[in-house]
Amino acid sequence: MSGGVDSSTVAGLLARRGLRVVGLTMQLWNQRRLPELSAEGATGRCCSLDDVYDARRVAEQIGIPYYVVNFERQFEQHVVEPFVAEYLAGRTPIPCTLCNNFIKFDKFLEMADAVGARHIATGHYARITRDPATGRYQLRRALDESKDQTYFLFGLTQPQLARSLFPLGEMSKSEVRRLAREMGLAVAEKGESFEICFVPNGDYAAFLDAYLQDKGLTRAETRGQIVTTSGEAVGEHGGVHHFTVGQRRGLGIAAGEPLYVIATDPRSQRVTVGRNEELLRSRLTARDVNWVSLAGISAPTRAEVKIRNKHSAAAATLYPAGGETRVEVRFDEPQRAVTPGQAAVFYDSDLLLGGGWIESDSIL
């Protein structure tokens, strides 16, 4: 229970069906840590102390046991530290996917075992089905495509899917709010959460600096040049971790035409900028691929591929690229701002086939 309307409605629905429900909130990040990062006026972040209070209040309303479980150490190890390492390596990580893989559907299941729970239920907008021929669990997009969260769930395993429930996968957001109001839940009108829980002001670069200082670590110098794709120096920057592929604003340079970040390279400490059309890429390679609804591929396979959550899935062909966990993606039409560190997630209509992480040196 995150304290939001979605997970609260799930708890209420399951309890109303007569199931034995235990509410669990995961304490993931100490919001008082790094006080120099002022969260004053910040809105839309998840997992705050107010959220814990809201979750407890909802549990009392629907009459279920409720516990707060401290996973701060595991969260820092599996989510925050990789987030920092990826940014400093010139990639753009997805902490919510790491949290799903290693906390919400891993440590959470261990906690479920400890209290004797058979299943875990969350407020994710996704659907689970089962292939009658193979018995394999399948992950499908939510019926409300505007709320679909399967992009962040590509790392789920068969044992995790077997014990997970997504009651909202068949509903729209408006239906969920209507049910929350019908049940009289205190969070029925609560707004959405958007910000990463440990970066309350949305300034990733400031978080990296503050976190490394908090850990007593010295960040390697990453100041350097901003250059064009032809190699011409057009400015200087204060650190490659301030930039991500496709970024236009905040470049700190004056040009006669709009320029975008094409690539970042911590090794040379260069940020490369160029025109919008120079962001187009026809292929990529994904590593650490997790196959969800398929056992894998051994031959070229057609799919639609999403390269970020809000990206419209693009038609492509998947090619095995060495073992089951590397896949080359060749798009029918070039795609804009393919970003190292983000996920490439493969679909067949509403069926999520699998997904992996976009490699830095494989974008052509």
Characterise this structure.
- The protein has 7 helices and 16 strands.
- With about 375 residues, it is an alpha+beta fold.
- It has 3 domains: about 140 residues, HUPs (Rossmann fold), CATH 3.40.50.620; about 55 residues, Adenine nucleotide alpha hydrolases-like domains (SH3 type barrels), CATH 2.30.30; about 80 residues, Elongation Factor Tu (Ef-tu), domain 3.
- The chain has a 6-stranded antiparallel β-barrel with strand order 11-14-13-12-15-16. A 4-stranded mixed sheet has the order 8-7-10-9, with no helix packed on it. A two-stranded parallel ribbon has the order 1-2.
- A hairpin with a 4-residue loop joins strand 9 and strand 10.
- Helix 1 packs parallel to helix 2, helix 1 packs across helix 6 and helix 3 runs antiparallel to helix 4.
- The longest helix is centred in the first third of the chain and has 20 residues.
Outline the fold blueprint.
Elements (H helix, E strand, L loop, with lengths): L4 H12 L6 E5 L21 H14 L3 E5 L1 H17 L6 H20 L5 E2 L4 E5 L6 E5 L16 H5 L1 E2 L7 H10 L21 H11 L9 E5 L4 E5 L22 E6 L4 E5 L5 E12 L9 E6 L7 E7 L6 E10 L6 E6 L2 E8 L6
Parallel strand pairs: 1-2, 3-6, 7-10
Antiparallel strand pairs: 4-5, 5-16, 7-8, 9-10, 11-14, 11-16, 12-13, 12-15, 13-14, 15-16
Helix pairs in contact: 1-2, 1-6, 3-4
Question: Tell me, what's the shape?
Answer: globular
| Biggest β-sheet: strands ordered side by side in the sheet | 11-14-13-12-15-16
Low-confidence stretches: none
Query: What structural class should be given to the helix and strand makeup?
Result: alpha+beta
Q: Could you report the average pLDDT, rounded to the nearest whole number?
A: 91
Distance between the termini: 42 Å
Q: What top-tier CATH class of the largest domain fits best?
A: Alpha Beta
Helix content: 10-25%
Task: Count all strands and give the number.
Answer: 16
